[in-house]
Amino acid sequence: WNPVTRWATSQLNRLTSFVPPPPKEESEPARRILLVHAHPCPDSFSNALADAVEAGAKEGGHTVRRRSLYQDGFTCALSQNERLKYFDINAGTARLPLDVQRNLDDLRWANSVVFVYPTWWFNVPAMLKGYFDRTLVPGPGGAFDFPPPSGKGAASNGL
Q1: Do 33 and 57 form a contact (C-beta atoms < 8 A)?
Q2: pTM of the model
Q3: Chain centroid to CA 151
């Protein structure tokens, strides 16, 4: 593999999944992968895919944290209290429930995120949508920060 074949492969992967990815280079460090799985049935095809992703990543020498939203009992409904404090960025992470803080810690730890879920009614499951709504909160300590007035960088918190 050379730079040209790596580039060509990455471009072909946009069109089809039949082109294998280029092999890992020796100098590439191991990834920290957050695997977020959203399906209620442990015997589902989706769960088998998540198992395969996890096994393949570990086999490749990477570290994986797996969050199975249904099995972990994640609460997907945004509470009234959370919504009222959603943009209260001066409160920092103190405004966030502990489960949301743990998910934000997972996001900060990871340098790669993989979502495994079925497509229902042309969209993600409500559980995953709730994960996005509750976890991807703005402000310092949140998933993203508003750009500073100078316009430099949107994610000053490391995400």
Answers
A1: yes
A2: 0.76
A3: 26
